[in-house]
Amino acid sequence: MLAGAALGDIFINSAYRKLTGQQALDNPEVITNLLDFEKEFKEIDSHNVFPLLARYDQIITYERQKLSYDGHCVQVIEKGHITAAADFAALRQHIHKHISPES
Fold first, then answer.
1. In the Cβ-directed half-sphere of 86, how many Cα atoms lie within 13 Å?
2. In the chain, what is the straight-line distance between the N-terminal and C-terminal CA atoms, in Å?
């Protein structure tokens, strides 16, 4: 929930770029090679992954992170990262929607 598999994007392109050191900004491929796991994610059985992204998220940017979930039905909450994380009712509803009765 509120995450993706391209975590390097947080430090290279998001609002948090300003917290990234110049050496990392000068070598973004190092950051993405260390933090991104999109390729690995696509190679596993992820039928039980039910993504929830926040449309106005400035940390886990929706447009970038939705690419991690190709082939998944991505639910979108019309909030930012913090406001979505603080919406306990919406998060709980998302979880309950996907929990099997056997859980």
1. 6
2. 19
Tens of pLDDT, residue by residue over 11-31, are 999 888 999 999 999 999 999
Model pTM above 0.70: yes
**Long-range contacts at 67-73 (CB < 8 A, ≥ 24 apart):** 67/4, 67/6, 67/38, 68/4, 68/5, 68/6, 68/38, 68/41, 69/4, 70/42, 72/46
Tokens of 67: 């690419």
Residue 25, both tokens: 């900004």
Q: Dump pLDDT digits (tens) for 50-92.
A: 999 999 999 999 999 999 998 899 999 999 999 999 999 999 9
